[in-house]
Amino acid sequence: MRWPLLAAVVGLVTFDPRGAWSDDATAPSLPRELTRLDLSVPDLPALVDLNLSTDKVTRPSTPLDFATSLANGFSADGSFHNGVAIEVSPFGLAKVTSSAATALRVSLATTAITKDGKTDGKAAVGLRWSIGAYDPAADKALRSCLAEHLPWMLPVPEQGSLPEAGRTEPTNDAARREVDQRLQTCRDRARGAHLAQSALEISWVIDGTSANSFKLTDLGTRHISGWVVGSLGWNSYSTSATEAPKSPVGIQPTVMARIDLTDTMMGTRRDVFAGVRLPFEWDSFGMFGEAGITMGDLSHVQSPTTLKTARLGGGFDYRISDGSWLGVYVGEDFGDGTSGFSFLSNVKFKFGEKRQYGLR
């Protein structure tokens, strides 16, 4: 059943709407790249702001480690080094255990920009706070389900006290497959129960550039960005051991707002973006509609009028197999300087979809 559907989808993906206008001089100009609206908050706002890789980030867990990281990245004369990348939980350093408190994360980053033979320093500091997102590692029901189906081995010595019970994987292939199937059932139930999630995420970042310098006191040309994302999730699924599992369905309306403040020679420019998405999620299929509007230069420092553009779009995701999804997106941009129909299709490989529920 899946392969005929996949073939039909591939046929749709290879369709190019521009073909209908191939001999027409009035053919619409489609953008080469069209992506879904980004309604997310950056995990590491300081690094994302400076377009730095998030692979090598120092995450100190004690005040001493944090002080050492700062000492390695900044000098006593007030200058900073290139390549600083730090993320820390202030309340975590204070040994506060509340999840709402430790969800506040601070990121610091620096970089060097070379242009026209001159090297400018750039530094950014960001904050991120989120609450409500599902964390499989903290799901007690999932842990209990996995523990129930993991095989136990209780070696009994001939004498002395009993050792602690330890888990071990069976050596028999058939038994191993049976255990894996049971564990996969636990993961599928956990995923089905959390297709949609209620969450609130807030992020903020400020950066500055020091012309031909790496001193903190020389930082100027300020740029500030702020994000707020809220979602309300509803799931129709049961993880009760006494109830028959229902087909998982999730609905998660999401609203996002972003503001950017950028210093220019003529004043501070203000840009605002707002977007909304309404997704419907099933175990192997999802579809959504979205809309967004951008209002540029609200303060009119570079343009006599506010520049407005909007996007209407929608699409679907189809799970080909565990970890592999086919995504199709259709959208239209219109407003100041933009118009026309756009079409995007891609195959998304979500590696780790099962692994995040494995816990071993």
The number of helices is 7
Mean pLDDT over all positions: 77
Count of structural domains: 2
| Beta-strand segment tally | 15
Ends: how far apart? 33 Å
Radius of gyration using CA atoms only: 26 Å
Secondary structure category: alpha+beta
Q: What low-confidence regions span 5 or more consecutive residues with pLDDT below 50?
A: 1-33, 153-157, 159-167
CA-based shape: globular
- Beta strand %: 35-45%
Order of helices and strands: HHHEHHEEHEEHEEEEEEEEEE
List the helices and strands and how they pair.
Layout: H1 2-13, H2 45-49, H3 63-73, E1 85-88, H4 90-93, H5 99-102, E2 105-115, E3 118-131, H6 140-149, E4 152-153, E5 166-167, H7 173-193, E6 199-210, E7 220-231, E8 234-236, E9 249-251, E10 254-264, E11 267-282, E12 285-296, E13 307-321, E14 324-335, E15 341-349
Antiparallel strand pairs: 1-2, 2-3, 3-6, 4-5, 6-7, 7-10, 8-9, 9-11, 10-11, 11-12, 12-13, 13-14, 14-15
Can you describe this structure?
This protein has helices spanning 2-13, 45-49, 63-73, 90-93, 99-102, 140-149, 173-193, and strands spanning 85-88, 105-115, 118-131, 152-153, 166-167, 199-210, 220-231, 234-236, 249-251, 254-264, 267-282, 285-296, 307-321, 324-335, 341-349. It has 360 residues and is an alpha+beta fold. The chain folds into 2 domains: 2-16 and 37-134 and 194-353, no CATH class; 135-193, no CATH class. The radius of gyration is 26 Å and the shape is globular. The relative contact order is 0.13.
